[in-house]
């Protein structure tokens, strides 16, 4: 169950992550190699598609995102959230685990171990040596009580 704070962070992150060349999608069901039913991250970020096929939709997406964001809810067990992120790490997906209560962000870039960010300006790095990309969010501003009014 999502809360007020969870929903505010969710909405604001989608707005910030919808940058030139990328689209942030909420609650999209992904097909991971170890998942029969699929898994639903809070936010999945993809390169913007060139065209959209409005006739042939899919309910479980096989194409992996370049970034996944999970936001811890007040009643959510933190270990369940970490376990979910571990599944993304196993699939080499860059992931952020946002914890509103502690105002912290745990980061995994390109499937590396989940580590607490030493800065609240978080950068998602993804891609390969030939084509590397970065998205960043200033979480200091995100956790500022008035940042969404700007």
Structure, described:
The protein contains three helices and eight strands. Strands 1-2-3-4-5-6 form a six-stranded mixed β-sheet, with helices on both faces. The protein has a two-stranded antiparallel ribbon with strand order 7-8. A hairpin with a 6-residue loop joins β5 and β6 (115-116). The longest helix is centred in the N-terminal third of the chain and has 14 residues, at 4-17. The two termini are 28 Å apart. By secondary structure, it is an alpha+beta fold. The model has no long low-confidence stretch (mean pLDDT 81). It has one domain (4-149): Alpha-Beta Complex (tt1808, chain A). The radius of gyration is 15 Å and the shape is globular. 23% of the residues are buried. It has helices at residues 4-17, 78-90, 139-143, and strands at 22-26, 43-47, 67-71, 94-99, 104-108, 115-116, 121-127, 132-138.
């Amino acid at each position: 169950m999502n809360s007020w704070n969870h929903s505010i962070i969710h909405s604001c992150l989608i707005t910030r992550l919808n940058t030139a060349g990328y689209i942030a999608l909420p609650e999209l069901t992904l097909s991971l190699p170890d998942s029969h039913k699929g898994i639903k991250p809070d936010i999945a970020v993809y390169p913007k598609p060139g065209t959209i096929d409005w006739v042939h939709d899919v309910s479980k997406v096989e194409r992996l995102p370049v970034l996944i964001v999970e936001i811890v809810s007040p009643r959510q067990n933190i270990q369940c959230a970490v376990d979910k992120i571990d599944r993304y790490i196993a699939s080499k997906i860059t992931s952020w685990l946002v914890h509103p209560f502690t105002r912290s962000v745990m980061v995994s870039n390109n499937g590396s171990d989940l580590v607490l960010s030493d800065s609240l300006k978080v950068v998602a790095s993804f891609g390969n040596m030939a084509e590397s990309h970065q998205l960043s969010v200033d979480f200091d501003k995100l956790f500022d009580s008035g940042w969404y009014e700007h």
